């Protein structure tokens, strides 16, 4: 058994600075606001906090467009505020990680301003510049790749008459990792600056996109569009492992932990190469198997609820089995700032079911192996905002670009626009970005002023203040589950996962095994009662109920959205 590391048996709480807590009444969350709620965060039972980008930024993509790695976005605070946050987090025995966004910078970053100033600027090669292609005398980008937020991922620069690459917004030019001086500057500015100030590691944004390969045209998967999906080309390129090994040398100096974001990588052998201990690259990654479930070729091209429980189980099994019989590590998460709310998505946000749904997902996650990540508000069972909210309430560039694209393509056909809005209500990133529901006060207790995004009206019935004093709340249930997870960490954090009812459409049943210990987990994913059936695999064993999402569970059936864990005696 490999030595256990602190980050394996840790639960991480993700904070979105703009929406967590506003301390100075400007409608935007800030670092002093985070500091003021550290006791709350600790009371949940988590060990680590992850702060989404708080760097100086023009905020085209909510801080994932960094203008200066060594400064803080002023409405959030200052570098000094961050130093206090680091110190105060450590003082409580918790750790803190930051978001490392180094696939691209903002187009306002001084490196890019220099790079675009002339073709012979020393930093020209720090970004990815290419001449135009001419087809029938018409100027075209170097290839047909579509960007993650739609449109070509090349932007024409009038001044120097070349295109630059941007896998996300045009305001997010991709750094050229092929250049060793660029890499060194990234390590110094984005990493060492903060490691020296005591941060314990990084969530590494789009970590598998640094090496772009030969950038040839992508195959045509959407004949109606000039721009084609190229994720399998720009992810996991030929020099990825070389770059990460080099980056790892910096991390090792500080014993820093990493969790990389790893989209478009269905091949588990490839994933394992990033997270295997002997490879010394990343400690773990976020795979997209679970959160991408039911999505169309473009994220939003989907019929809401277009997934079945067997698919969900399969996705979980895939990420759980990543660590079977090897030296890799995995993660457990259902939400983050790029996902809508898990209760709305995977259970039900109907008033009579939402609490049960929140507890069911908490119980399930707490029994899964890997490092656990909880997104702010998830511990309360916060849900998506409703269909009645107008398009003005959506602030994310991903949402507005999609809506515009459908409008253009359909010439504003009301039916198509309705479908597009339904998808956004189901899947938009905006749902995770509304203010945290602290209390039933105005603006959900998040701010004294009108917040930058509308707060949920629903805060009247679902908020941290009420749930803290309610023993049957989703929050109280999370606290209990995180304790149990620690107490039985051999089984829950490190154990082997076995799926027992692959094709059952209503109930999800699995066991966790560690040496001679075994737990049985049974989850009812429907709004109806289900018969409680012990699978044949465990029928001969004596079982003892460890926990149910209900206070008084029935002996022979599962209530709507009820989950239970049994300890099995061998
Ligand atoms: O996300 C990168 C990513 O691959 C996607 O999940 C992306 O969010 C999705 O395609 C949008 O629908 C990361 C960050 O988590 C995200 O917030 C940033 O926008 C993005 O990188 C660019 O930095």
TrEMBL record:
It comes from the Eukaryota. One of its GO terms (biological process) is maltose catabolic process. CDD domains: AmyAc_SI_OligoGlu_DGase (cd11333). One of its GO terms (molecular function) is glucan 1,4-alpha-maltotriohydrolase activity. Residues 14-433 form the Glycosyl hydrolase family 13 catalytic domain. Keywords: Glycosidase, Hydrolase, Maltose metabolism. Coiled coil: none annotated. SMART domains: Aamy (SM00642). PANTHER family: ALPHA-AMYLASE FAMILY MEMBER, NEUTRAL AND BASIC AMINO ACID TRANSPORT PROTEIN RBAT. Belongs to the glycosyl hydrolase 13 family. This is Glycoside hydrolase. It comes from Polyplosphaeria fusca.
């Amino acid at each position: 058994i490999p030595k256990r590391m602190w980050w394996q048996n840790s639960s991480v709480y993700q904070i979105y600075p703009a929406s967590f807590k506003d301390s100075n009444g400007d409608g935007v969350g800030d670092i002093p606001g985070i500091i003021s709620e550290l006791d709350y965060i600790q009371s949940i039972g988590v060990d680590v906090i992850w702060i989404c980008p708080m760097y100086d930024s023009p905020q085209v993509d909510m801080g994932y467009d960094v203008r200066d790695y060594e400064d803080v976005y002023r409405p959030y605070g200052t570098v000094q505020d961050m130093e206090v946050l680091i110190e105060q987090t450590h003082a409580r025995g918790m750790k803190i990680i930051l978001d490392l966004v180094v696939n691209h910078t903002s187009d306002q970053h001084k490196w890019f301003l220099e790079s675009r100033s002339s073709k012979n600027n020393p930093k020209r090669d720090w970004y990815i510049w290419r001449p135009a292609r001419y087809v029938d005398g018409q100027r075209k980008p170097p290839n047909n790749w579509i960007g993650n937020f739609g449109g070509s991922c090349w932007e024409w620069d009038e001044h120097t008459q070349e295109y630059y690459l941007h896998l996300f917004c045009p305001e997010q030019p991709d750094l050229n990792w092929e250049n060793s001086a660029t890499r060194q500057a990234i390590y110094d500015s984005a990493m060492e600056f903060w490691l020296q100030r005591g941060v314990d590691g990084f969530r590494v944004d789009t970590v598998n996109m640094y090496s772009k390969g030969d950038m040839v045209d992508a195959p045509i998967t959407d004949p109606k569009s000039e721009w084609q999906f190229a994720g399998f080309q720009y992810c996991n390129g030929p020099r990825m492992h070389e770059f990460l090994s080099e980056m790892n040398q910096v991390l090792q100096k500080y014993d820093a932990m990493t969790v990389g974001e790893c989209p478009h990588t269905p091949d588990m052998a490839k994933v394992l190469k990033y997270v295997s201990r002997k490879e010394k690259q990343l400690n773990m990654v976020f795979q997209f198997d679970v959160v991408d479930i039911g999505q169309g070729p473009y994220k939003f091209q989907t019929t809401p609820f277009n997934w079945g429980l067997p698919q969900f189980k399969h996705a979980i099994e895939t990420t759980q089995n990543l660590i079977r019989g090897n030296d890799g590590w995995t993660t457990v998460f259902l939400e983050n700032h790029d996902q809508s709310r898990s209760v709305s998505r995977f259970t039900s946000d109907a008033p009579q079911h939402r609490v049960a749904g929140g507890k069911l997902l908490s119980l399930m996650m707490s029994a899964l192996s890997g490092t656990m990540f909880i997104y702010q508000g998830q511990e309360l069972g916060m849900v998506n905002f409703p269909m009645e909210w107008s398009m003005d309430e959506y602030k994310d560039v991903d949402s507005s670009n999609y809506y515009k694209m459908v409008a253009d393509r359909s010439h504003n056909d009301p039916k198509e626009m309705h479908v597009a809005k339904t998808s956004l209500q189901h899947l938009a990133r905006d749902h995770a970005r509304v203010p945290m529901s602290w209390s039933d006060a105005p603006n959900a207790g998040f701010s004294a002023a009108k917040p930058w995004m509308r707060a949920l009206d629903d805060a009247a019935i679902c908020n941290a203040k009420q749930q803290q004093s309610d023993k049957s709340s989703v929050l109280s249930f999370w606290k209990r589950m995180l304790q149990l997870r620690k107490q039985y960490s051999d089984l829950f954090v490190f154990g082997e996962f076995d799926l027992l009812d692959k094709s059952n459409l209503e109930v999800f049943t699995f066991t966790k095994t560690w040496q001679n210990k075994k737990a049985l987990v049974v989850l009812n994913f429907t709004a109806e009662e289900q018969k409680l059936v012990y699978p044949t695999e465990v029928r001969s064993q004596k079982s003892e109920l460890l926990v149910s999402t209900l206070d008084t569970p029935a002996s022979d059936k599962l209530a709507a959205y009820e989950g239970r864990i049994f300890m099995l005696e061998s």
